[in-house]
Input
Amino acid sequence: MRNRWHPTARLARHRKRPEAGGGPDAVRTAPPARTADGTAPARGAGTRGRLRRLLTWRKLLAAGLALLLLPTAAFAVLYVSIDVPEANEQARAESNVYLYSDGTVAARTGEINRETVPIGRVPEGVRHAFIAAENKSFYEDAGLDPVGLARGVVNTALGKGTQGGSTITQQYVKNYYLSQEQTLSRKVREMVISLKVDRRKSKDDILAGYLNSSYFGRVAYGVQAAARAYYDRNVEELTVPQGAYLAALLQAPSRYDWATASPAGRRHVEARWGYVLDNMVDKGWLDGKERKGMRFPEPTAPEPGPGLSGQSGYFVDAARQELLESGVSDQELAAGGWTITLTLDRERQQALERAVARRLDGESDGERDGERDGENGPNKGSGGGASRDVQAGAVSVAPETGHVVALYGGRDYTRHYLNNATRADYQAGPAFHAISLAASLERKTRQAEPRAGRAAERVPEHELVRDTAVDLGVHPDTEGYDAERATELGLLGVSPMELAGVYATLGRHGDKVTPSLVESAVRGGERVELRDAVGGRAVARETADSITNGIGGMPVPSGPDGPYEPYGPFEAPYGEGTGKGRPADGGSSTRRAMAPAGTAVPPTPAALVSGPSDDDKAAWSVGYSPELATVVGVFGEEHRSREQAALTKAQARMAVGIWDEYSRAALGG
Output
């Protein structure tokens, strides 16, 4: 039998076949081999054979073992090399310093509020509430949840922040031993230390450490401080519903604080609260009938800490919200050590505060108009000022940069914790008209575009207005667009901060402006990457310019020195001086501000919208120019109950008075 590997055999296999019709001397080779059934082998069979020889089961097994053993070996090295460190120094955290744009101090936060308590002081039902909220398998796991851990590592590696289902042990390790930084190395250390802590400490010790080191908002670290901050009682006096709220709060302390949460935030925290109680029922820790009878326990109003009096607390509140949106956590901020530079212009800020103080707490419009004994009389506060049942909120933005140059949040943060500059619970009234008009103009623009032979899609009016409002900067959670005449009358709740962004966007010819209060935030060598305040297109340039021209398109009158030119400083409000006054029926007015030609002030065209809301509980004055977009809101609020209340006509006129006085000072008039 011939050896198929013999050289002559290989030579024969490589000889070519003769061409068809070749001569007698043509060399013939054997026909291709056939399979058992007589068919020719499939093309590529040789390649697959070689692959089978390369990928034998032994080689595959070896590769699989290597993939399994290498990470295991690496983890073993990490486990040996990483030890449980000493507790971090967060309890002795530094203050945060907030600076004006010129570097002078605007605010300084105080020390951390913390009181450590033994686990025996925490009622069992409250302990179960936290476990039900954060880690139902706490008593069974070894300190890690493999699925949640994998999700957390991936999210951290992809820069998705704190998402990821950490166990109570991991959260305790992060709070007590490590930092809040979101890095892969910190996540790996957290994992290793969690395994060691779970082996060295009892579950009760771990739970106690977790409850005493967690941040609950209101500058409260630990469950005892939280019990006092939210329910004015000691931890052993907490009920199960109250404990469930505190457990729900940990997911987003600032967003879920009932006293300051938006309507959407309140819905979310109530849903989270219900989720905690339902998990307790599932675990057998709470009777189902008892659960059905539980009602949400509203917490008490917060008491601002030291160093936050006057406007300082409002600065800190608004800056914190912006930093949270940029990815900084509540706990990172509360840990302290930050130097936060604000965009506030100190001179303009002082001008705004003076304007509000004169109108709100000084001589009111009603007094000058002879209403001392009229409708405003019974509502006046002491000292000849406005009623204590009137609040003001204002935001002034530079459209060119998107920076907030002045902000007024209320009379005093220590007495009125709700920030009037960012609250969105009052009707926007005439200030919303520009948004509705923008939606209408955008529809016409889209309908005019060629659509390949098909008719323009008809979008319901309220949906179009909602989409345009969101594009201009109104929060997407805002509700009520579909209510009867809601967009026509401005029945929706919009904050002064949001409106300042809307009108700054119009002032930038439709380029999106998202007001920014934080210029920089630095801690040690760490600098926060802030969102861009200006960028992208919200509405077409034609839309923005048409609205500006429409608001400011009143005929230009003549004065003793010739025609007026459209620039600041601004004319007196509601009929004072040379101004075109407010309509006698109390309706809203729109006008372009005028000043005599030839003055030393550089040209600054400005458009102004002013008037009360449909329910008379708010009055607005919104003016914008290429240099400033300023929104002033005056709100009726019963000072004891904090319920909304109707404004008198004199009180409603304060909005445009504040706007006018501030704008004169801010623009050098």
About this structure: The CA atoms of residues 62 and 68 lie 10 Å apart. The longest helix spans residues 57-81.
